[in-house]
Amino acid sequence: MTATIPDQLHEPETGAQYQPPDFGRSALINLGGCDLAIISSPDDIRNWVDEIIGRIKMRAFGEPNIVRFGEGDLYGDTHVQLIETSHIVVHTVHSTRCVFIDLFSCAAFDAELVRAEAATFFQARASRLGYFERTDPCEDPS
User: Fold this and answer.
1) Distance between CA 60 and CA 81 in Å, rounded?
2) Pairing of strands 65-69, 98-105
3) Rg for the chain (alpha carbons), in Å?
4) Which 3 state secondary structure label does DSSP give 74?
5) Contact 122, 35 (CB under 8 A)
6) Backbone angles phi, psi at 89, to 5 degrees
7) b/e per residue, 49-74, with b = 16+ CB within 10 A?
8) What is the pLDDT of residues 26-61, one digit of tens each?
9) Percent of the chain at pLDDT above 90?
10) What values do phi and psi take at 35, rounded to 5?
11) Alpha-helical runs (H) found in the chain
12) Do 118 and 29 contact (CB within 8 A), yes or no?
């Protein structure tokens, strides 16, 4: 069964367009052809995360969790940093020289700035940004 969701919902009592609550936004950034020395350095990744958190006016919450694991083509690093409004995660894959960044925050941020800064820092040959806003999937607007 497929549900149909109208493009715009309206408040039943007033007819006003329904505005779902704001639960944050997610930026998904894919980088390709990155500099292997940079993406293989936990210190470099940590420094970039610290810098980008400041650039988007967020604050780190606690220390990051940095783990190097995997084998063969799936060997790389995962860097998880909680921020006061959610998290930023950086995954690296050394064999393909790819970096995958997930940033979720309840506070607004400039996703294009994060993509551009990441592409420059990791010396990516290609980058792609996905962005979406999150609303309450459980709330019934009717």
Assistant:
1) 7
2) unpaired
3) 18
4) helix
5) yes
6) -125, 135
7) beebbeebebeeeeebebeeeeeeee
8) 999 999 999 999 999 999 999 999 999 999 999 999
9) 69
10) -70, 120
11) 36-39, 42-55, 111-121
12) yes
SS (H, E, C) 97-116: CEEEEEEEECCCCCHHHHHH
State if pTM tops 0.90.
Answer: no
CA-to-CA separations, 112 to 2, 37, 66, 93, 96, in angstroms, rounded: 33, 24, 25, 22, 23
What letter represents residue 68's amino acid?
R
Tokens 């063969």 belong to which residue? 72
Q: In order of start, what are the domains of the chain with their CATH numbers?
A: 25-128 (3.60.90.10)
Locus of tokens 């210190």: 43
Residue 127: in which H helix or E strand, if any? strand 126-133
